[in-house]
Amino acid sequence: MSRTALTGVLLVALAGCSTATSGNPVGADSTDGSTTTTAAAASSASGSSSGSTSKTSAGDGKACRYATATGQPAPDGRDVGKPAERAKDAPAKVTLTTNLGAVGITLATDTAPCTARSFLHLSSKKFYDDTPCHRLTSADSLKVLQCGDPTGKGIGGPGYTVPDENPGTLKPSGVAEAVIYPRGTVAMANTGRPNSGGSQFFLVYADSMLPPTYAVFGTIDDAGLAVLDKVANGGITPQRGEQDGAPTVPVKIQTAKTDG
Angle at Cα 110 formed by Cα 175 and Cα 163, nearest 5°? Predict the structure, then answer.
């Protein structure tokens, strides 16, 4: 498959309609007329997380520059500021309690410290509480659930952007410029532009094939995978094609809490 063909797959699978300002940390499109892509990247470590609640360094030796997202402030009531540029020990796990069950995420604080730090910050500030998972895809090459937008429309963000931490160890897919994102991994969505991640993220429920340009920041535990399977088996209410739309079984993050 050529790069053009692969890009076409991504645009069909993940590009949606939105009214966000260009360059904002959203997981779909921008309003400058250009089409952008979103994706979920996967961890190089396959399988579920260990469930450990020990603390680990969230990149305390690395300075993370979180830029203000001009034209895209956080939704009303969810202005949570920015994460600290440097951090000390941080929890290694976040639990998303949803209306369908708990999804435990073990964070990749070693390989994606800036993204993990942002996720921890937003979770601790209750940014993700009472928010929907608004998007489900089921294409052969892309099977993900997208969450993290308080607006539920795919256009929301936290008011800042996260620096890129592209994965470098994912397995080749056999298709040019694409790698395999294994089931059970979590990654940051972006607009397709450099350093444009924000609050939206993807939960990968089956092996997916994408370019390695999306930060991998966690793995999902077995209980969380069971929740994802329930959502995927419930089907899609089409919005951007038969294989891309809202989950027919509604999913809402009730709380996002750090362990430790």
Answer: 70
Q: Residue 260's pLDDT is what?
A: 60
Q: Cα 54 vs. chain centroid, distance in angstroms?
A: 23
Over residues 38-65, the pLDDT tens digits come to 433 333 333 333 333 345 444 456 789 9
Please name the fold of domain 3-259. Answer: Cyclophilin (2.40.100)
pTM over cut 0.90: no
Domain edges within the chain: 3-259
Regions of the chain short of the pLDDT cut 70:
1-61, 88-90, 260
Amino acid at 248: T
Q: What's residue 70's pLDDT?
A: 76
Each residue's pLDDT tens digit, 121-137: 999 999 999 999 999 99
Residue 89 has a pLDDT of: 58
For the chain, the straight-line distance linking the first and the last C-alpha, in angstroms and rounded, comes to 45
DSSP letters, the chain, are --HHHHHHHHHHHH-----PPTT-S-SS--TTS----------SS-S-------EEESSTTS----EE-TT-PPPTT-------SS--EEESEEEEEETTEEEEEEE-TTTSHHHHHHHHHHHHTTTTTTEE--EEE-BTTB-EEEE--TTSSS----SEEB-----S-PPB-SSTT-EEE-TTEEEE---SSTT-B-S-EEEESS-EEE-S-S-EEEEE-HHHHHHHHHHHHH-EEESSSTTEEEESS--EEEEEEEE-
CA distance 111 to 144: 21
